[in-house]
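Still learning. Show one?

>
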Amino acid sequence: MKKKLQAAAIGIGAGGLLLGGYIGAWQHGIRIPSDFFLPATAAFTFAATVAVFALIALERPSHPSAKATLHLNEEPATNYIYPFTGPKVVPILARPDMTVGEMLVRQSAALKGAPDKTSLPIALTIRSSNRKPFASITLQQLFLALKPFPLEHVLLMNEKNNFIGYIPGKRALKEFVGDGAVENIDKYIVKVLANPSEKAVLREIGGATSDDAISEAKDTQVAEAQIWANEKTNGLVIHRGLQPIGYINKVDLLRLNVGRL
């Protein structure tokens, strides 16, 4: 109601100024036509029009300006990050000294149901060991066992649990199951774990390396600059401290930043 009264006052004031101009002209000897009532009508019409536009302007919702920076650990950035850990993620650990059964036994409850009824994404961590190298055939059997389930992430870690590389789960199942699986596992996992300097090959299959990592405390503009610094980068692995906690792909990061312009 207050805004409507303000709009009306603005309109009346505008009309009064217009009508006052005609009256002032008449008082100063400027000839006014006999049909003076027409300017008066025009003045009131003008006043009504101004009042309508004033009301629209007053009732227009105000939107807070976008934050100058948005950090990766803040919403809505967190909505674009696929987490590696948490109550809605099934973690599986694979080490060279474990059998496939031992790798899966801890999550037997989550995996015992029908695959099409398993909705929680799986994050597989493959950790190397100085004592024993991975057997490619063992990893092939592991990926075959996980094929019916929603494998979302594959993390490659060294024996000290330091991050080496990342492979999207769907791409991992494509490359590591079926024809050429053993050769691909040897190229993209076994050799990379044994010699992390070869980690750049992971980008060939849509993966990321430790060079494609960024702290969650950084903002999205810094993250985008890091993406563009290397055209082969597919996305960024988000770190909290020294541990990887999630992944954001290039398309989602660019979409996030464009949406804030």
Summary: Strands lie at 82-83, 90-94, 122-127, 151-157, 163-168, 208-209, 213-215, 235-240, 243-249. The longest strand covers residues 151-157. Residues 2-59 form one domain.
